[in-house]
Specification:
380 residues; mainly alpha; two-stranded antiparallel ribbon; 14 helices; 2 strands; 68% helix; globular
Length: 380
């Protein structure tokens, strides 16, 4: 882990902004909208508040998109980051440069897994049985690591074969492998094959008792989420003059609609489900991610309407740092009360939660702006 003092060149501003937009909801946005829903009971805020909760099992809410969107964006970034190191090389030099990438990939993967355990409270030393080894950061680590290995070592055709094998193979395992006491194809929290493997083999605490939403088997389709991001990044880096920026934006939006429909179609046989990261969930979320990326790319990088997006860029370029800080390292709500409490208490009491979270947002964006101006970016 290091603080990077340089701002990489030729970045897609839209990609950083979308990553920041994604992170906004889990570091402060959800608190603001839940507070506004409780304070106003207006239909818009209440609808948004309902969307900012995970589905219990099958189904989809906007909150379910946050995690796969982050992995998708990480995949989009890979062709850009690896391309800077490999594009100008060929033959043995290119192969040697590829091999030199494996060590930092392994270090990043291990570091994220360990940081995920820290977020889960491992430093409180709860004991082996009460330590949760699976985590959000761990899934990001593993899915992006394996997607990177596939990208670096396989042709585009073979990468597509890998994607199909991951999604279809996962569907086959979940549908045809019998679970003791339940049988095959029982896609319930207790009876799914992924849940069974978590109970049998996942070390330490299984978060939901019967299964872990970041468990063992469901990491397989998450690699597919990262690969779909890789394919999108390859397309965006394509310098063929027939693919103008405007045409790329329209094609991203069109592809988003196609993947949404594919996900809904597969949902008939393999329900959209974040908890076990079903293959239909992968396709549906890829559709949502492509639509959002296409919209951000069109507005920010094609039309150059950028003034509104910079707070999201500050957040997006230090996404791991703000995630770690907001999940147990820094008590932003306490800081908001300490700094803005006097002003907050001037407002009607029912707005307290919403305004407290607005204060959290101000503190977070202020700190992230300072880091951005100093060119300090936490990189793994």
């Amino acid at each position: 882990m290091q603080a990077d003092k340089t701002l990489p060149s030729k970045r897609l501003t839209s990609l950083d902004a979308l990553r920041g937009f994604d992170m906004f909801w889990i570091v402060c946005g959800e608190g603001i909208f839940h507070g506004l829903a409780d304070a106003t009971h207006l239909p818009f805020f209440e609808s948004m508040s309902r969307q900012l909760h995970h589905t219990t099992w099958n189904g989809f809410t906007l909150y379910d998109l946050i995690f796969p969107l982050f992995i998708f964006i990480a995949g989009v970034s890979m062709p850009f980051s690896f391309g800077k190191k490999l594009d100008h090389l060929s033959g043995p030099e290119r192969q040697q440069a590829k091999r030199s990438l494996y060590r930092p990939l392994i270090i990043r993967c291990v570091a994220l897994i360990l940081l995920g355990m820290v977020v889960n409270g491992a430093l409180a030393l709860p004991g082996y049985a009460n330590t949760r080894f699976a985590s959000v950061l761990g899934r990001i680590a593993l899915s992006c690591f394996f997607a990177a290995i596939i990208y670096l070592n396989c042709s585009f055709r073979t990468q597509i074969i890998w994607l199909l094998a991951l999604l279809l193979g996962y569907w086959a395992l979940m549908s045809w492998v019998p679970v003791p006491g339940f049988g095959a194809g029982v896609l319930t929290p207790e009876g799914s094959f992924a849940s069974y493997l978590d109970r049998q083999f996942l070390p330490g605490e299984v978060l939901r008792g019967d299964y872990d939403p970041e468990g063992i088997l469901s990491t397989i389709p998450a690699i597919g989420t990262a690969l779909l991001g890789v394919f999108t990044g390859r397309f965006l880096r394509n310098n063929d003059p027939k693919y103008t920026p405007m045409k790329k934006a329209m094609m991203l939006l069109g592809a988003g609609v196609v993947f949404l429909l594919l996900g809904l179609l597969w949902n008939i046989w393999f329900p959209i489900n974040k908890n076990i990261w079903t293959s239909s969930f992968v396709l549906f979320c890829a559709g949502c991610s492509l639509l959002l990326l296409g919209l951000f790319y069109l507005i920010i990088d094609v039309l150059k309407w950028q003034a509104w997006c910079w707070p999201f860029v500050w957040l997006g370029m230090n996404s791991i740092l703000i995630y770690m800080a907001s999940h147990g390292i820094v008590n932003f709500k306490y800081s908001s009360e300490a700094i803005f409490g006097g002003l907050i208490h001037l407002a009607p009491e029912r707005f307290y939660d919403a305004l407290l979270w607005v204060g959290v947002a101000i503190i977070q964006f202020g700190a992230l702006y300072f880091l951005y101006k100093k060119r300090i970016f936490l990189k793994l």
